[in-house]
Write a structure and sequence with these properties.
By secondary structure, the chain is an alpha/beta fold. It has ten helices and eight strands. It binds zinc ion.
């Protein structure tokens, strides 16, 4: 019999064959766990889509970016240095809005083009309006730093409540709060000593009532009835009223909107015998790197120029 010989060989074969059986089992076990984890991770990625915040124009855009810091890039619809009144959404804008996790606008009165899209596409739950209830006929609430601060605080709270933990950035937010308070302080010091007869102006469209109220200035009237691009030129009667007000209310300056047609304002200033209009922009931020590229810089630049114009006789 060759049992002994084959017996030894059988034992080795046994160990070897068990090894071949065991190895794939162990391997399979770890591979199964590996792919299960991978699968779960992919599933997780599928169930939590990336956070996409879309802001209406440059000012809410800056505040959103401040609220989230470097953690994500906020999309802006109305480009820098562009008119927000009468803005029309492009196909690309609509696509951005469609994919947005959150949509930030100033107020439905100011951005009716955004309010209409939100309503038509049933995105009310994703929209955050910084100034939801129309507080006055003038929706340019951000021209008052105290109101801007309230809106920034409300935005920060809304984002902290809606975004996953760690996305909101308390550091950049706190810096912006301090900056807004500093701007307010500087502007109060700038306009505070202005003589009573140097505080009145006429604006091209109704956009500075908040600013004027905060710093004790007066808006005698506006050339246009609204900020809409379709706003009609004033009637002959309104034009003559404006002339009268310039004379009787000690209007020092006519403020026009930078980038807008100011032919009528020029004629009015000339007819009334006051200096040429001053073009300011409280409506958008400048391209990055230029003066006015942040809310604070825009406010300081406008205030400085307006103050100089009010002081000129
Ligand atoms: Zn405006």
């Amino acid at each position: 019999m060759q049992i002994s010989g084959t017996g030894t060989f059988n034992y080795c074969n046994y160990v070897a064959s068990r090894g071949f059986i065991l190895l794939p089992i162990v391997l399979r076990f770890f591979l199964t766990i590996f792919f299960a984890i991978l699968g779960l991770a992919q599933l997780g990625a599928q169930t939590t889509p990336p956070i996409r915040i879309v802001a209406s124009f440059t000012i809410p855009h800056e505040w959103c970016q401040v609220a989230v810091g470097q953690s994500l890039n906020v999309t802006c619809l109305v480009p820098e240095k562009s008119e927000l009144h009468g803005f029309q959404l492009s196909a690309k804008d609509a696509q951005s809005l469609d994919r947005a996790s959150l949509i930030i606008g100033m107020s439905p009165d100011l951005e009716p083009w955004l309010a209409a899209w939100v309503k038509a596409n049933h995105r009310e739950a994703k929209a955050i309006w910084l100034s939801p209830a129309s507080p006055s006929a003038d929706p340019h609430r951000w021209t008052d730093p105290q109101e801007a601060l309230k809106m920034l605080e409300a935005l920060h709270l809304a984002l902290v409540g809606r975004l996953p933990p760690g996305v909101a950035s308390p550091q950049t937010y706190e810096r912006q709060v301090a900056e807004m308070k500093a701007v307010d302080q500087e502007l109060r010091q700038l306009f505070g000593p202005l003589p009573e007869d140097a505080r009145t102006m006429i604006t091209q469209h109704p956009n500075l009532s908040w600013f004027a109220k905060r710093y004790g200035l007066r808006i005698a009237d506006t050339i246009l009835a609204s900020g809409s691009a379709e706003a009609a030129d004033p009637s002959a009667r309104h034009y003559s009223n404006l002339l009268t007000q310039i004379r009787t209310q000690q209007v020092r300056v006519i403020i026009t909107d930078e980038g807008q047609n100011e032919a009528l304002a020029r004629r009015l200033a000339k007819d009334a015998g006051i200096p040429a209009p001053l073009a300011l922009s409280f409506e958008y931020l400048e391209p990055r790197g230029q003066e006015g590229d942040t809310w604070a810089s825009m406010m300081r630049r406008n205030a400085r120029r307006l103050h100089a114009a009010l002081m000129t006789r």
